[in-house]
Amino acid sequence: MEILELFVVALMPVLETLFIAIVGLFLAVDRVNILCAAARHHLNDLVFYVFFPALLASGLVNSSTEISILSLWFTPVSILLTFIIGSVLGWILVKVTGAPKQLHGLVIGCCAAGNLGNLPVIIIPATCDEKNNPFGDSSTCSMNGMTYVSLSMSIGAVFVWSYVYNIIRAYGNKDDVGIKVNSTISEQKYDKSSEIFSDSSREALLSKSIPCYEVHEAPVELLRGSSEDRTKVTIFKKINVQVNKLVKIVDLTILLRPPTIATIVGLIIGVVTPIHHVLVGDNAPLRVIANSVSLLGEAAITSMTLIMGANLLRGFKRSKLSIWLIIGITMVRFIILPLCGILVIKAAQSFGMVGSDPLYHFVLLLQYAVPPALAIGTITQLFEVGETECSVIMFWNYVVASIAVTLWSTYYMWILS
């Protein structure tokens, strides 16, 4: 295929996403006020608790029987690499630009977590529907593509709601954690000084009341035993303090959120063949359940895109965010990470880790070229840290994405075709 044809194929899904986002932005304007703050809040709850989990589960449950989910083991590895590389680049960015400490988690999260949800879900089917797409028959392309995208979206949701959630939470509560740790250390120092005082008093008492020959025998053994006990207690206290600090920083209950549960259920149904046959297929006795979940999941794409457009309206607000920080995040997401993605996927191809399907390679490459995950905005709203700054970052990144994602998609299809 010629470059111009590939460019048109890549441009169509991006324009579809941009058009729906513009509709959402228009509905959020004060004069229209259909997607007001309250409406966005309720719609966001529906997406988070119903539509998005249904989309994750249905995508994995309705996976093609010709593709084993276990054979796609490199997908979570690739996503993990995007988070690691992005986190390192984000950490370097906050150090170079001198960003405020409370925004460190936001910047690192934006560099690490890409939009593996609604953008690929729209881009892949729309690309497959184009007559000149390089991935073969439209129906087979769409079915296999949704399998790849659903797994990518599910794993990405787990990473976002575990890693990014906790890193924004940790930096947002950094001062409080520091105060608590310092107070704990002070208490430990006080306890140690009390133990030393009690030991010296015990020795003085023993030297006065016990004969000389007993001081050299029984009390020494007694003191040795108590020293060992105190050492064990001190180690136990240190371990207990470290565990409490870890629990405060990492909220493990977030792993039980609806997207994560839906991912686990979908993977189980997709991997366990007897359950898969009961729920999926024209002759499956419980196919009505899978079909109903699919219908709910179809509402997620449009709803998330409308919310994205409505939230981007906040990006017009003024913020004290440094322009160099915005430029840095944009360069990380649309220049450095896509180049790293090419190196990673090409290396995986040379070692035979990703099979031979070019569509699967395209989905893996797309993971490195998408804008920041929209869930980051929801997380900043939960902790009330950097909400306006997040809107500004999202606005400019999604403006640039309309061009950057199209260009990278064109280049990816060219090197894979």
Account of the 3D structure:
The structure is a single chain. 78% of the residues lie in helices and 0% in strands. With 417 residues, it is an all-alpha fold. The protein has 2 domains: 3-172 and 256-416, Na+/H+ antiporter like fold, CATH 1.20.1530; 177-249. The N and C termini lie close together (8 Å).
Order of helices and strands, N to C? HHHHHHHHHHHHHHHH
Q: Any idea how many domains?
A: 2
Per CATH, the class of the largest domain reads Mainly Alpha
Give the total of beta strands. Answer: 0
The radius of gyration computed from the alpha-carbon positions, rounded to a whole number of angstroms, is: 28 Å
| Shape field | globular
Uncertain residue segments? 175-218
> What's the architecture of the largest domain in CATH terms?
Up-down Bundle
Category by helix and strand content = mainly alpha
Which percent range fits the helix content? over 70%
Give the DSSP E fraction (strand runs of 2 or more residues): under 5%
In DSSP terms (H or I, runs of 4 or more residues), the helix count works out at: 16
- CATH T-level fold name of the largest domain: Na+/H+ antiporter like fold
Amino-to-carboxy terminus distance: 8 Å
Main sheet record: none
Average pLDDT: 77
